[in-house]
Amino acid sequence: RKEVEQDPGPFNVPEGATVAFNCTYSNSASQSFFWYRQDCRKEPKLLMSVYSSGNEDGRFTAQLNRASQYISLLIRDSKLSDSATYLCVGAFSGSARQLTFGSGTQLTVLP
Amino acid sequence: DAGVIQSPRHEVTEMGQEVTLRCKPISGHDYLFWYRQTMMRGLELLIYFNNNVPIDDSGMPEDRFSAKMPNASFSTLKIQPSEPRDSAVYFCASSFKSYEQYFGPGTRLTVT
């Protein structure tokens, strides 16, 4: 079983829709979580960190539920430019600076 | 500011040949990571360095793979001999005292 698991999608949504991605992790000795974004044939880039209290960055909201070992990303008012693969990422205790990437969820926003 | 630089961007080689991938991290970053990405296995960490010292190479698939970091501004990942199953995109990333990693554009390797 992978340490970080995501629904691979694809998610095809119309412009302006709200879409949510979920991610679960199996290693309870987790420290930090992140969402990275990867455009087609490009490198991954940090989208946002995920805090236990939940955090928001514009149209993006990330949530972490440590009891359920569950992470989510909500995108409101989706734009065509949001089309990408979203990678759920964990940093686990004892793995200094080492990140574990989920396999990614593919999103396509349609006009 | 220059980001992480990787070369070559594309490499096509025949099975059995030696392949060397190069990476220049962001100046001042103290961690450097090598990843491999394929459709089947996603993004996998191969090895990472801290202050030029290899910390964890448990992700290196086998002895055909080796990585070095002779100084703070340069690292190489070598595959010798290469095999078709090594075909993938190889990313280098660097970070400084945080979990935020900055990725290079990647090297797309095809072994025929």
Please tell me about this protein's structure:
Chain A is mostly beta strands and 111 residues long. Chain A has strands at residues 4-6, 11-14, 19-25, 30-38, 44-50, 55-57, 60-65, 70-75, 84-92, 99-101, 105-110. In chain A, the strands form two sheets. In chain A, strands 2, 4, 5, 9, 10 and 11 form a six-stranded mixed sheet that branches. Chain A has a five-stranded antiparallel sheet with strand order 1-3-8-7-6, with no helix packed on it. In chain B, 0% of the residues lie in helices and 55% in strands. In chain B, the strands form two sheets. In chain B, strands 2, 4, 5, 6, 9, 10 and 11 form a seven-stranded mixed sheet that branches. In chain B, strands 1-3-8-7 form a four-stranded antiparallel sheet, with no helix packed on it. In chain B, a hairpin with a 2-residue loop joins strand 5 (42-50) and strand 6. Chain B contains no helices and eleven strands. The radius of gyration of chain B is 13 Å and the shape is globular. With 112 residues, chain B is mostly beta strands. Chain B starts with a strand and ends with a strand. Chain A binds chain B through residues 32, 34, 42-46, 87, 91, 95-104, and chain B through 31, 33, 42-43, 45, 48, 50, 55-56, 91, 95, 98-101, 103-106.
Feature tags:
heterodimer; A: 111 residues; mainly beta; six-stranded mixed sheet; five-stranded antiparallel sheet; globular; B: 112 residues; seven-stranded mixed sheet; four-stranded antiparallel sheet; 0% helix
In terms of DSSP E residues, the strand content of chain A is: over 45%
Query: Which parts of chain A are unreliable, with pLDDT below 50 for 5 consecutive residues or more?
Result: none
Q: How many helices of chain A?
A: 0
Low-confidence stretches of chain B: none
Mean pLDDT of chain A, to the nearest integer, reads 90
Biggest sheet descriptor of chain A: 6 strands, mixed
Our measurement of the CA-to-CA distance between the termini of chain A, rounded to an integer number of angstroms, reads: 37 Å
The proportion of strand residues of chain B reads over 45%
Instruction: Quote the average pLDDT of chain B.
Output: 94
Note the overall shape of chain B.
globular
Provide the helix percentage of chain A.
under 10%
The largest contact between protein chains, plus residue counts on each side, is:
A-B, 19 and 19 residues
